[in-house]
Amino acid sequence: MQEEAFGKYTLLSRIGSGGMAEVFMARAVSIGGFEKLLAIKRLLPFCTQDQETVDLLGDEARITVRLTHPNIVQVFDFGRVEDHYYIAMEYVDGLDLKSLIRIDEDSSKAVSLDVALYVTGCVLDALDFAHTRTDSRGAKLGIIHRDVSPHNVLISRHGQVKLTDFGVARAAISSHVSRVGDIRGKFSYMPPEQVCGGEIDQRVD
Questions:
Q1: Residues annotated catalytic, as ranges
Q2: CA contacts within 13 A on the Cβ side of 64
Q3: How many angstroms from the chain centroid is the CA of residue 89?
Q4: Containing H/E element for 14?
Q5: CA 69, 149, 179 angle in degrees (round to 5)?
Q6: Rounded-to-integer distance, Cα 147 and Cα 121, Å
Q7: Per-residue buried b or exposed e for 164-181, using 16+ beta carbons within 10 Å of the residue's own CB
Q8: pLDDT reading at 199 higher than 90
Q9: Could you report the per-residue pLDDT of 66-110, keeping only the tens digit for each?
Q10: Cβ atoms of residues 161 and 191 within 8 Å
Q11: Residue 39's pLDDT band (cuts 50, 70, 90)
């Protein structure tokens, strides 16, 4: 794609897409030669007409901005450019765990035990931090990611492991209220309790 001006950012290339949004590598420029690479998650055009989807994106921004942790992708900005809602977040130069597993499968090798344990430990650290996060008054936020899967675990070229995509997360500060039977996430990675659409808690992660 050609570079695209997008508000105060410049979209450089598309690095991912899903049913509701697409993700771009982007650049932010300021005075004195300041320049930063980041990722822009932008809702697809047809999704901007659906208030529930816009609310989910807003919830993702509100939840993730409270999670400053080495193993969680950071959120910097949430906004709207014309009819496009977006989140600006940390750019991780690497690949997701699903792609790493696929590379190893293609080469007829399994991910080594050391790597598997390291990645699992980092994800558990991220989840423990999210699950125990409180507000300014000490009340638990009750964050549940609900979509922990290899697609949402990023691994940088330097070996950093980052949990991402709190887009269907549930928390006390969410504007979107989940109802019983409201199933969100990837079926392949859900525990039975979540698939059945009943009441869930942080153990589903």
A1: 147
A2: 28
A3: 9
A4: strand 9-17
A5: 90
A6: 17
A7: bbbbbbbbeebebeeeee
A8: no
A9: 999 999 999 999 999 998 999 999 999 999 999 999 887 778 788
A10: no
A11: very high
